[in-house]
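A quick aside before the break. I want you to see a complete sequence-to-structure record at least once, exactly as it would be stored in a machine-readable document. Don't worry about memorizing anything.
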Amino acid sequence: MIFTFFHGALLGILLSIFVGPIFFVLIRTSINDGFKNALFMILGIFLSDLGCIFLCYMGLVQAFADPAYKKWILLGGGIILTVTGFITFLSKKEINQNKMDTGGVRSVGLLIKGFLFNVTTPTVLLFWIGAVGFAVSSYQGDRNMVIIYFVGTLFTVLSIDVLKAYLASKIRNWFTPKVMHLINKITGAGILIFGIIMLVRVYLNR
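That is the input. The structure line, written in tokens, reads:
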């Protein structure tokens, strides 16, 4: 179980170091509205991720029990993760921090904003579809193991997001375009590996 938890934590680390729009929204919220208010946005992001995982799991775990669908679930999840990782690895798009504005909304408003901003980012749902497919296949649909896996993932993401917000005023200056490109390459490579593993499983079980 401990190995499963840390296996999930690895996925959480990959997701947490991804430099996307939500990263800058969180950093600006912490700087403009304070660390305590940023925690509400973090909670909104957390609830959004939890909801995505639950919906993906409920849809995939039942289909995974049928051998006829198992191959297609693995194939689809593998393709999603592989493409996401490949695009992230090659991405050179620079994110304009000045356009990421929270509008001065506080507390519950920030929670809702974090939830909606995260869940409406297209890559988020696609990422969780692939991640849930990977977890379900790795643990053969064992619900307890899948839960432990994603507890590790979400705990890691939540912890790192809190750390990001706390250190926002200090780490913001570190993230130059060159550093962001390097981080995206590392993250993309990690996600790409997860996707390739799923595709290899499809090939080996054909």
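Two observations worth writing down. The CA atoms of residues 32 and 51 lie 28 Å apart. The first helix runs from residue 2 to 16. We'll return to this after the break.
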